[in-house]
């Protein structure tokens, strides 16, 4: 499929819009809304190995199903966890979209994300290669898979105070 046709395909545009909406929701720290953007069987993964696609058999920083996403949201909102106390202010830039697959039920997108964070008088920047599988539905599109491959995933990672 040519890039020109791909980026005028309304299914692709809906998927990109949802990825941008997710970034805005996370920057606003609206974790309840973020959690509702996922299908019940969705996975949210941050793998250590930048080349793996076998997340179930690999070591991951995050490997969240619905239950674990819910627990993560609770920690971010309760105010007592280190990640929630003085949570970082963030601005995400998501761009460089490529379309891996399109059909009437789903769109698989790859993109690049730069996340700028400010916490405790310090700035940090994290880059990631992103993969989103967006489940398309007349009842509302949702994220069925999100994989954030950090460009420094094999190095030590400190507590961030935000969701990728």
UniProtKB/TrEMBL annotation:
GO terms for molecular function: oxidoreductase activity. Keywords: Oxidoreductase. InterPro entries: NTF2-like_dom_sf (IPR032710), Rng_hydr_dOase-bsu (IPR000391). It comes from the Bacteria. Transmembrane segments: none annotated. GO terms for biological process: 3-phenylpropionate catabolic process. Signal peptide: none annotated. Belongs to the bacterial ring-hydroxylating dioxygenase beta subunit family. This is Uncharacterized protein. It comes from Gordonia insulae.
